[in-house]
Design goal:
Two copies of one chain form a homodimer. By secondary structure, the first copy, chain A, is an alpha/beta fold. Helix content of chain A is 43%, strand content 19%. Chain A folds into two domains: 242 residues, TIM Barrel (Alpha-Beta Barrel), CATH 3.20.20; 97 residues, Sulfite Reductase Hemoprotein, domain 1 (2-Layer Sandwich), CATH 3.30.413. Chain A has twelve helices and 15 strands. Chain A is elongated and about 75 Å long.
Chain lengths: 357, 357
């Protein structure tokens, strides 16, 4: 339904980004990169949560040896995130990085950039030009322009320089902590460069406000067909970022990882204790991977309609629930048995779908 | 920055909806309406969280007496939510309801609708025509149309009937549990009726998925200037709905209730324990009402830039934080004192702003 912007694809390890490939979910480790075991353990958890590309910072040269070990053993392609010291980026290309991320604002002079690009070209890996409102190059920061225009001008000028040297395996990002500035910047970028866009609202905040800002900003962009890979930034466990990213993709029916749960907010009309029922169903659904649609509804107003529309649904009345499967009422179950009865049907459907694959 | 669609305003008690009025936040009680004390206690909590209009279901006639008591004592205007039995709606207009919400799908025959509208007219209160995918009238449900078109056709036909009888104090909603269908429906509604729109994604799910679906769907609409009042539906404590609604409005810089927190996701570069610091700052900021911007940043890449851009900010280094106020570095503080030092500055600023008002 959403018409995606056409971009020039790149490969990040075995994962395609852009050119019509599935929109991928990224995150970034927040362990000490020098601790390869801790970083690999976090990458394993991120992969389990649905992360498809992982970024790892190389703050100093003492993280390089560990970075190499991480690249060798990571189940996900690893992006090296480098600021300030371009030599770390060059080293990273030789240690198994699947992609580099550099920032025009702090990578330094043109010949340093050129040396990084040359190393990426030799390694055959793409480079993300990642501009950030918090670290704009001084020549842009000082202009009296709207933030979005400064971000885009910085990114585009960097891309043009690199493209003129014959390197085209680029991905671009331009993030701000303001949703409006971020959306504006990406809309302009989408019209200005042919490269895939890595979208994200940066420094979005803690779980709640970061989830809302990311959902609003990335939701607007994705609905307009802008964005080839996304990263949700939360001041929280990075696995939460992955869960939220998937929820955003699912909300727009772009990609879905596992079941969908439709559940009502309950009101004065509800005659069963719905919230714990919905929470328990949600918890159990998280363990499944088939895209079944499940409805948990509290009353007779919208309950039968939504329950009928789902693959498996329950519409509750006074202390009981009507169990639906594929639009048909199967039976009436007492309140205490709603979760088990619903999940038995969902699991049966899950097995049917899994067996058919 | 966002150009809002022009609508014909209505008054819900003392709260204007539409016609350029501030976009208001609604929620709905999920207590038993027959229990006036419990319902009023929940309304007080919702008001404290920032709710501006509250909806209360009247499922049966035995809730009417209590509904009257709730209307008399509620600090917020109360909307009566009625399905199936139009006589309850008529009674509600006489008991102090500030607005009615009825659903074309289940209010019944035209003469019943007309009786409700006549009563609302006598009471001088507006009526929301609230169409819902889970309870479409059969004549629309059975059509082979996209869901959004069925929702809009049902709402528009109802509005036209009521308007033809000279009643124009309408608010309209058309909700689905699908974000895409909801967005489509409201875009079409915005072109089809002159009335304020109450926007929401219905049966959006539990806290996480409901927050994401509501943020994506309502974010897209609000960014397009569509929506005069909003309700986030979560299978959770209704006070959470209010918090999320405000976060959505704040994300787009439409309205803000209290401070904004910019905080980074941390990475391998971070040398202080940022997540608990950011969480504690967020917790304390929730108690304030002035719209100060606070940044809690973990490293030297984007830290100084974001901290400088905030009213008060901290950019952390190894075991220390640089404290900024209004773009200037004030001093360096040890990690253990970051929260107190930052909050002392924020609270001083809060007092200055409050005193100046």
């Amino acid at each position: 339904m959403i018409e995606r912007r056409q971009t020039r694809p790149v490969m990040v390890g075995g994962v395609a980004v852009g050119g019509g490939a599935a929109i991928t979910v990224q995150s970034m480790t927040n362990t000490d990169t020098r601790d390869a075991a801790a970083t690999l353990a976090q990458i394993a958890r991120l992969a389990e949560a649905g992360c498809e590309i992982v970024r790892v910072a190389i703050p100093h040269a003492d993280a390089l040896a560990s970075f190499g070990a991480i690249c060798s053993e990571s189940p996900l392609p690893v992006v090296a995130d480098i600021h300030f010291d371009h030599r770390l980026a060059i080293e990273a290309t030789r240690l198994g990085a699947a992609k580099l991320r550099i920032n025009p604002g702090n990578i330094g002079s043109t010949d340093r950039v050129d040396a990084v690009i040359e190393a990426a070209g030799e390694a055959g890996i793409p480079v993300r030009i990642g501009v950030n409102a918090g670290s704009l190059a001084a020549e842009y920061e000082d202009r009296d322009w709207p933030l979005a225009e400064k971000l885009v001008a910085s990114a585009v000028s960097f891309c043009e320089h690199i493209s003129a040297r014959g390197f085209e395996d680029l991905v671009v990002s331009a993030k701000a902590s303001s949703v409006n500035a971020t959306v504006d910047a990406y809309r302009k970028l989408a019209l200005s460069v042919p490269y895939p866009l890595h979208i994200g609202v940066t420094e979005a905040g803690t779980s709640l406000s970061g989830t809302v800002k990311s959902s609003v900003g990335l939701g607007i962009l994705l609905a307009e067909g802008v964005g080839d890979t996304l990263r949700v930034s939360l001041t929280a466990d990075p696995a939460e970022e992955v869960t939220v990213a998937w929820e955003i993709l699912a909300a727009l029916d772009i990609r879905r990882r596992g079941p969908e749960l439709v559940s009502c907010p309950t009101c004065g009309r509800c005659e069963v204790d719905m919230v714990p029922i919905a929470q328990e169903v949600e918890r159990r659904l998280r363990l499944m991977r088939t895209p079944v649609k499940v409805a948990v509804m509290g009353c007779a107003v919208n309950g039968p309609g939504e329950a009928r529309d789902a693959d498996v649904g329950i519409a509750s009345g006074k202390g009981v629930g009507l169990l639906f499967r594929k639009g048909e009422v199967i039976r009436k179950v007492p309140e205490a048995e709603i979760v088990e009865a619903l999940m038995a049907e969902v699991e049966a459907l899950d097995r049917e779908i899994t067996d058919a694959e």
